[in-house]
Amino acid sequence: MSDTLKRAGDYHIEVHDSPAGLAADAWDELLAQQSHPTPFMQHRYLLALEQSGSAVARTGWQAQFVSVHQGQRLVAAAPAYLKAHSWGEYVFDWAWAEAYQRHGLAYYPKLLVACPFTPVPGARLLAADAEARAVLGQALVTLAQQSELSSVHLLFATDAEREALHTQGWMERTGVQFHWQNRPEQPWLSFDEFLSDLQRDKRKKIQQERRKVRDAGVHFEVREGREIRAADWDFFYECHQRTYAAHGGSPYLTRAFFQALADTQAEHWLMFVATLGSERVATSLLAIDRRQRVAWGRYWGCTQAISCLHFEACYYQPLAWCIANGFLRFEGGAQGEHKIARGLLPSPTGSAHWLAHPAFASAVADFLARERGGMDHYLDELNDRSPLKRSSTD
């Protein structure tokens, strides 16, 4: 179901309460035109989140996808959600919500432009050109105003998207993740060659950690795409549940969601399965894009506590695979300074925010200015901790 939001010149704007209200081919064609597309923004991925019951109104994610049309042509679109909480976002605004509450104001629902539960930087405001992107940004604010929402938030967006919204008065926020980059001019040919470019103490530590896993008798199998069997997905989800249970929670994503990935998006998934003797003891799941030669670390879990198994499953096995397959980048996911010592270096991320209340908007702008100064200093400190030898960094 869709509602007409407004007309802006030659543009016709609609709001959809499900991604199913938008043609998959038109959405994916628009995504392919962006500078930083990812599999997580494909129509089938977003639809799987809804149809599996993972991102729906019952869980606090009510779809309000915004589309911009010129005649019959889709020229811009964004995955927007009415949010009743701030879980599953990875850009933290809990303090803002508490401040609203202390002043007797409602922070929720808010409008969130993001891929649910997926802190992966990439295109969010899909647009055929800069003008269509500007119309889309304005449409998001209009939707928030007409629905009397507190705010709009765009998470893990591209530089171009944030710059476009900045000109419309949105506020920018900087975060950090940890990504591995292959050498552009002379890519590493093996994991051992990569290790040889690390400082001696870091190299020794990685070798010791890998040796502990080998000495424990753990072996790994790698399965890609349709090679990942139903039993592998079942075991993966068992491990996934255990990871959340260890932290006193339950998974955001349902087993049906991962089944949908296996059925409709198999070419983008890579699974590492660890075995001890004849028993499977751990698994990690990566998303991959062979055309862009990029991999994303997503989820992991284990059934036994084995020293350094997490590092092997989540970093060393994926990095070795990426190097062997000529990949250019491996993104290790949200947070985790421990990744630096393993060759994943700090990479800034960005979000954009619009608040309806003028006084709160001013206060948040002051906070973000202070936070930005601290983040610049933090990034400098992190870069100083690079494990790469100086010659390799240069």
UniProtKB/TrEMBL annotation:
Gene3D superfamilies: 3.40.630.30. Transmembrane segments: none annotated. This is N-acetyltransferase. InterPro entries: Acyl_CoA_acyltransferase, FemAB-like. Coiled coil: none annotated. Pfam families: FemAB_like (PF04339). It comes from the Bacteria. Signal peptide: none annotated.
